[in-house]
Every structure is written in structure tokens, then in C-alpha cells.
Amino acid sequence: MVHAMTVSIDPRVAELLGHDHHLPPVDPQRFSQQALVERFLSPPVWQPDISIERWASPPDPVHAAVLVPIVMRPEPAVLLTQRTATLRKHAGQISFPGGRSEPGDPDPVATALREAHEEVGLPPERVHVLGQMPRYTTGTGFIVTPVVGLIAPQPHETPMLALQPDPSEVAEAFEVPLSFLMDPRHHQRRAFGVPAIEMGRDNPRIEFFSMPWRPGAESDREYFIWGATAAMLRNLYRFLSA
């Protein structure tokens, strides 16, 4: 898994700057398999909102890749994972399946598929790879390539895919409707200051996206999507809406 932050902070208490109510959601017609395939075959001219986190500059960046898995249900959804609470770093955070590249990986696609198989038990042959999004550089020194792929659920895989998450890394795998994630009304802009003792500089202001999601209107469970994961989803919004 790859994450944006290493500092020990609670992003939920960061200052809420606002939402992007002025931006339109992506047309749901663009969520069909044909539309998604065509979008990657003939990409539009567009620019990602954020491609590098400038709040830290660690040496020797590490190449990594994540899989952005779109589950092609009647209402398409994005498969995400929540890290276990016992991990030393980024415990409980939400991410895409993925991680650092290994010497045997020929390209970012191979890295993303291998990591997804290891983390959640998703067989590579089940993923129809559409293409890659622009690389995203985290403040912790990862150069991440998002790989977007489609997954066709089997009839028995409702409401969730039949996965086998690695319990040492993944506490839960879950799906979020693509329509929710591609609607800027749900994109929160937040900011906080990090003490210089943690960052090595004078109290920088860090701005980031978050996309809190609840499985249902009556649910008291909230999945707080933020940091690199939210930023890459925001870039996917720009790509699909262009």
C-alpha cells in the first residue's frame, strides 16, 4: 500500500476549507464499460489537480503503483481497502491496493496487479486494465503510478467481490459508488499545519482533499478517504469530466 502522510495527525480535525459545489459531477453515461474503454483509448487534453505533494522532499524516491479497481456493477463502484489498526504506519487509513515496485516487475501494471493479488487476493486475470493515470509523488518519497482496471463481478459476488484480504495488512475491503467519488460536492478541501519538529521546517500549511463516505443514510460508519488516495480520485474526476 502507498499513502501520502507519515505524520501522526487526525485528518478529520483539519480545517475544512470548503467543497467544490461549482463543479459538475461526471455524467453517469461515462461510467459504462464502453465509455471508459474509449476514454483511455482516446484520452482528452486535461491536467491533474495535484501530481506532487510539496510539503516534504525525501531523498531517493521509490517507484510504486496502485490499482484503481472499478467494479462494473449496475452502479459501478471503486474497490478500496482499509489498513489494519495494528500497523506501525498509516494504521486504519484507506488506500488502493498497491505498493512499491520490485525488481521482477516489468512495469507499473505488473506491480499494481501483483500487489492487488497479494493484498486482497484479486487474481490478475480478472482485471481488464484500461491504462495508467499520471504519476503522483507523495511527500514521503513514493512516485506512484495509478493503474485503472475494470472488474466484472460474478453473479454470487453481491454486494462484494469474493476476496481474501491479507489480515496482516488489510482490515477490510469495501466498495464506494463511482458516482459518489466523481461528484465534487463530496470533495472536501482541508488544511492543517504540521509542527516543525515533525516536518523539519517552520509550520507549513498542508492542503489536501478528503471524501468521507457512509455506506447508507442511516449508517454511523464513516470511511474517511483522504491524502494520496483522495488526490488520485480527484485526478480521475478531472480525466473523466474533461
TrEMBL record:
Q: Which CDD domains does the record match to this protein?
A: NUDIX_CoAse_Nudt7 (cd03426)
By what name is this protein known?
CoA pyrophosphatase
Alphabetically ordered keywords of this record: Hydrolase, Magnesium, Manganese, Metal-binding
Q: State a single Pfam family of this protein.
A: NUDIX
Q: Which InterPro entries match?
A: CoAse, NUDIX_hydrolase-like_dom_sf, NUDIX_hydrolase_dom
Question: Top-down, what is the taxonomic lineage of the species of origin?
Answer: Bacteria, Pseudomonadati, Pseudomonadota, Betaproteobacteria, Burkholderiales
Q: Which organism is it from?
A: Aquabacterium olei
Q: Which PROSITE patterns match?
A: NUDIX
One GO molecular function term of this record is:
metal ion binding
Q: Which cofactor is recorded for it?
A: Mg(2+); Mn(2+)
Superkingdom of origin organism: Bacteria
SUPFAM superfamilies assigned to the protein according to its UniProt record, in alphabetical order: Nudix
